[in-house]
Structure formats: C-alpha cells, structure tokens
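User: My collaborator sent over this chain with a note saying "see what the structure looks like." That's all I know about it. Can you take a look?
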Amino acid sequence: MANENKKVADSLFVELFSDNRRFLELYNALSNQHLKLEETKITDSVIKDTIYRSLKNDVCKIVNDKLVVLIEQQSTVNKNMPLRCLLYIARIYEMLVPKRERYYRSLRKIPKPEFYVLYTGIDDISEYEELKLSDAFICDEMQYSGEDFELEKKNNPKLELEVPVINVRPGKNLKILENCNTLREYSQLIEKIHSLLRENSNREEVFMEAIKWGLDKDILKGYLEQAVAEVLNMLVAEYNYEEDLAVQREEAFESGLAKGKLETAKNLLKLNILTVEQIASSAGLQIDEIKKLRDEIQ
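Assistant: Without extra context I'll predict from the sequence alone. Here is the result:
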C-alpha cells in the first residue's frame, strides 16, 4: 500500500497497475494481445524514478523483450511528453547496459520501448492523438531547393519517439475499456470525482463520497474494501499535485509576461526616440523601472 514516508508519492493509477496481473490485463487491451500471466516474464523497471517530480504517475515494466511505459495524464495533455519520455528511457537503458558493454564490437540488444499515455482529465479531447518528438525539432534553414528533398527531410527525422495519447474517459475507446475491467472501473471512479468536484470544493469529502459510491457500485470493490485510507491519501496527494502544477503554470506565465515587458522597454530605450514616460506607458511599467533599466543599459 501507499507509504507516506516515500519522497515520491504513488498515484492510485500506479498502485493499481503496478500489480502484474492488472498490468498485463491493461497491456493486452492497449496492444491488442492475449499474453497469459503464467507464460509472460514481467520485471519492474530498473530505476525507481518518475517522469513527474513529486508524484509517481507512471508504471514501467519489461514484458518479455519489450520495455513498456504506462503514464496517466490527469488534467491536460503535456506536449513535451515525448521529450520527457526520451530522457526517461535513456536513463533506463543506461542502467540496463553496463558501461563496459557499451563499447563491445558486437551489437548489444536492448528491450524495445513502448509508450502509452492514458488520459483521464476533464477536457473533452479526441479519442486518440499521437505526440512525436520530431514536432519539437527546430527546422533548419535549408540551402537546397526542391519540394521532394524538403518533404523527405521532414518525414524522416534522424531521431524519433512516438507517444500515443489514449482518451480512456467513460464512453471513449470502448474496446480498450471493455477488455480491461480494472481500467474501466478506475476511469469511472475518476469521472465520478470530477463530477463531484464541480459541486463541492471540499476534496476530502468528495473523495470519501466517491469511494463510498465505488463500493456501492462494485467499482474496484475488492481493492477499495482493503485500502480505503490508502486510496484517500493517494487521491489527496494527486489532486494537491495537480493544483501545484496549475499554480506553477500561472507563475511561469506571469514571469514570462514581466520579462516580455522588460524586453520591450529595452528595445524602445535603445531606439532613443521616446521619453521615459512614453516608454513606461507603452511597456506597461513604472517610470522608476524604466529609469533603472536605462541606467543599466548605459
């Protein structure tokens, strides 16, 4: 069960799908396979790390010869997920392959990676979206002409990592939900929490009501019956983390806005055609700030 002494808290998603039986049920549904637990070798990731900073919201296991990473997205789809997955998987390979073996002449085989982001947030996004690392690449100014060359360069990046984002809210991707009972019931529980939070801002009351609803409806009943306190603690940690992220995004936006104003003021000062008062009005800053900035430039 969840351990409050951990530096990184487990989410309910991780707690559920770290179990090999539930994990394989979900992986079969996502990959359209029919692997049997007794015939499948499943080992945990070699690193106890997380793609997130203070909440472990990912499950990473090696299934036979594949390295499978499952990630749950709570509120919004993170467009930087391919980059984060790249850094994450690089660390895993670094742990898997001893330093000495990296210099062998013979090819060192490594598990093939697979990534799945499961969306359970409140936005009504499409059922399936694919994020690509190459979408983040800065395009070079080409010295060549010809549409064929440009098209081939765009379609054949030298480094690529693809992450499917699968909407698993109730009513979406029904085949996957039908083939994984645990995911379907987990999705129903999270949807119930979203619904209750729209009417009640007291999270602990909402979580307890949702857990009681789950028990009454036989939603994750076997698990919830044994771990009510642990589930409550995990839900509190998850939603506190989501709130922290929202605050950080807002602060980052405000910081970026302030930097933008300063850059505007600097550029206007360098033109040397407006008064301090005019620049302050144009950039949305105080006159004293413009004077200080002028002194720094000089």
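A starting point for your reply to your collaborator: The CA atoms of residues 251 and 263 lie 18 Å apart.
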